[in-house]
Amino acid sequence: MPTTITAPKTKTAPAAEKDFLPLQGTDYVEFYVGNAKQAAHFYKTAFGFQSLAYCGPETGTKEKASYAIRQNNLKLVLTTPIRPNNPIADHVYKHGDGVKALALTVEDATSAWEETTKRGGKSFMKPTTLSDADGELVMSGIHTYGEVVHLFIERDNYRGTFMPGFRKWESAYNPPQTGLQYVDHCVGNVGWGQMNPWVKFYEDVMGFRNILTFDDKDISTEYSALMSKVMSNGNGFVKFPINEPAEGKRKSQVEEYLEFYDGEGVQHIAMATKNIVKTVTELEKRGVQFLKIPSTYYDTLPDRVGHIDEDLEPLKRLGILVDRDNEGYLLQIFTKPVQDRPTLFFEIIQRKGAKSFGKGNFKALFEALEREQEARGNL
Ligand code: FE2
Predict the structure, then answer these.
(1) How many C-beta atoms lie closer than 10 Å to residue 16's C-beta?
(2) Ligand 1 being an ion, which residues bring their Cβ within 5 A of it?
(3) Which of 184, 266, 272, 320 is most buried, most CB within 10 Å of its CB?
(4) Where are the domains of the chain?
(5) Confidence band of 4 (pLDDT split at 50, 70, 90)
(6) In CATH, what number does 18-168 get?
(7) Is pTM, for the whole model, over 0.90?
(8) In angstroms, what is the span from residue 198 Cα to ligand 1's centroid?
(9) How many angstroms is it from 190 CA to the middle of ligand 1?
(10) How many helices (H) and strands (E) does the chain have?
């Protein structure tokens, strides 16, 4: 009898498609600013961030100074050039204050760089190991829209305060926190016709999925319109909505941003809180300015969103918006731009089940934005 050779029985069905870029969340957001010392003071005083770490000439860094500040799982780095004629100085000259890096925590920064550059990502930084007495940290990075980059930060073998090169920043001035917890999402503004190419970039290069789409009918007022697609990584920890302007009677807020930022960039960063009424009350007390919407918004709110746990009165007083989706509801509010150019602003968001982005608020919100635009003479 001839021997039959059969395939080994141990062979299993192919595993579910593996996430080639597993992300653990946002590591930090780095801003390039005109004056990092003053910006750090502002974010501590106004938003309740805490001093974390510093690097600059005193720590051996020749071209820049950086202040890392933290609140719960939110970390911001404020970087300024201390000399002219270098990429950081050029960035500030062109864009004003703005976001340079959206840094993401990964288990393996080398693999993150290899997998993304292999798929067409343009390298910003090859995998680089930084070390000091507290261990090793590996970082790498790729470019995204405008001059923004994504850094991949592998910090499992690092026990220091922030990262090698920084020293612990201990300050005698420590205003209390305001309840901000983590980055919920970061929104990018891109140019005409550029939303879909960047959606494809996040799909192809970073393995993200398009989880929501808003067209110009969803996001339009009498005067202007925009389109938006929300990109999310596999586990949903990292969400990047991408906006582009759409045709309207007048200039849209995205166009105003592109003009004043002189290019594509981060429009807003949404920071989550567990108690938006408490957080916003505190922020307002500290001088943070929010977009205000007409009080008539609250007349129809109960009909639109049904029962919510919060009292309507404080929401109305503070101007907090509410929206509901199939899974729950969310509360949100938007600051005015945090620098003189009408560019970057923040969103404060509290999610109570809802995974969406406040579509029901778009119209009221964009009308409020247009009133601000009009006051600046840019509508
Ligand atoms: Fe948002």
Answers:
(1) 6
(2) 270, 347
(3) 266
(4) 18-168, 180-376
(5) very low
(6) 3.10.180.10
(7) yes
(8) 18
(9) 15
(10) 9, 17
